[in-house]
Amino acid sequence: MVSAIVFAFAIFCGWLIVDIVKQRKLTLENVLSSLVVAVIAGLAWWVLELIF
After folding, report:
1. Secondary structure in 3-state letters for 25-45
2. Which segments cross the bilayer (predicted)?
3. pLDDT in tens, 12-52
4. Are 26 and 20 in contact (CB under 8 A)?
5. What is the Cα–Cα distance from 34 to 12, expressed in whole angstroms?
6. Which residues of 31-46 are buried (b: 16+ CB within 10 A; e: fewer)?
């Protein structure tokens, strides 16, 4: 479970950095889209941990 949270946080930070570099500014839309992607990635990682 801890690794899924760490993975989700890393995805959030990485996605946010990519959006900031691409658009040259930080917006609420970028933060929310990064958060959604991070939650989905974290859940997927957690499910993979359960399966394997």
Report:
1. CCCHHHHHHHHHHHHHHHHHH
2. 6-21, 28-48
3. 999 999 999 999 999 999 999 999 999 999 999 999 999 99
4. yes
5. 5
6. eeebeebbeebbeebb
pLDDT of residue 8: 96
Which tokens belong to 31? 């933060």
**Residue 1: partners with Cβ closer than 8 Å, 6 or more residues away:** 46, 49
**Contact predicate 15/37, CB 8 Å:** yes
| Residue ranges of domains in the chain | 2-51
Q: What angle do CA 34, 14, 11 make, to 5 degrees?
A: 65
Residue 18 near residue 36, CB atoms below 8 Å: no
